[in-house]
Amino acid sequence: MVDQVLTSLIRDVPDFPKPGIVFKDITPILADPQAMNQVYDALIEPYREAGVTRIVGIESRGFIFGTPMADRLNVGFVPVRKPGKLPWKTVSESYALEYGEDTLELHEDGVGEGDKVVIVDDLLATGGTLSAACRLVRRLGAEIVGASVVIELAFLEGRKKLEGTTVHSLLSY
Ligand code: AMP
After folding, report:
1. Quick one: which of 73, 68, 47 has its CA closest to 167?
2. Whole-structure pTM over 0.85, yes or no?
3. Structural domains present in the chain
4. 124 CA to centre of ligand 1 in angstroms
5. Distance (Å, rounded) from C-alpha 129 to C-alpha 134?
6. Could you say which of 49, 98, 113, 163 is catalytic?
7. Mean per-residue pLDDT, 3-31
């Protein structure tokens, strides 16, 4: 069910933000409250009995999906952000982009030993973003139970960068 609902609510935008990229626009999902509810439930489904203690969401669409997941599991939400956005002491990890590199940061006290974490983003493409977030969480001594994404672009083989992490995706292209 979720597959059909989702497929109809994801808008392909060719050549955004640059030529050759087909952007998966999830704003029609956000505009549909029933679809949103189904998505949140589907994203947490594998983790209901997993003893999760924290949801870590990646800026910015990971925040949208991550906070209701944390609410449903009755655990805390922790943001992973672009550099210079988090006010407290941070750890940071860089990852390669097609041209250049990018960096993500996490508060030092955001997760720690004993935490069981699910990491969330809207989309898995090459895996650079999610693998950097995994490194941040592991550096702070927490265990990653899994990663959840709404969309996986399987042809980009992002899972290869995420060996050792179970990835749960709702839709795969
Ligand atoms: P990657 O690090 O290559 O796995 O890219 C994942 C990040 O880039 C996610 O935060 C996505 O929001 C964004 N992203 C990459 N490719 C797309 C795409 N085709 N459509 C929408 N978002 C994308």
Report:
1. 47
2. yes
3. 51-172 (3.40.50.2020)
4. 6
5. 9
6. 98
7. 95
